[in-house]
Fold this sequence. Notes:
Layout: E1 7-8, H1 17-24, H2 29-44, E2 48-49, E3 55-65, H3 70-83, E4 89-94, E5 101-104, H4 117-128
Amino acid sequence: MEGLVDIYLPDFKCWTMETSKRLLKADNYTAVAMESIKAMQKQVGDLCFTSDGIAKKGVLVRHLVMPGREAEGANIVQWLAENISKDLFVMLMLESRDDHRLLCLNRPWELLVEKSDIQKLIEQSLRRS
């Protein structure tokens, strides 16, 4: 795919093998997701934009935060910051809610509503990385 794709939009669904087996019926999902996102980042780098704000090249990772599995989201974001790039953009989609978040791991983001548990966990994870 190198040289053919300008923007990658991978999902990073879950962190633990238990969740991976239960929800995705996959034994090694996390390891495969990690390697895939590393390869995507190596090919196109951090997300960059035109002067009018349109994404032109890079990686934007999506993560759907599942109720009761907020800590997995925090682990994913921490791993992305430590192993991919602190300038990586991540779209956090909160299950059954309309207040999705787009954040760049290297910059704080503005909150439109009260902080959710996942946002608090992510902030803690980023402070550690």
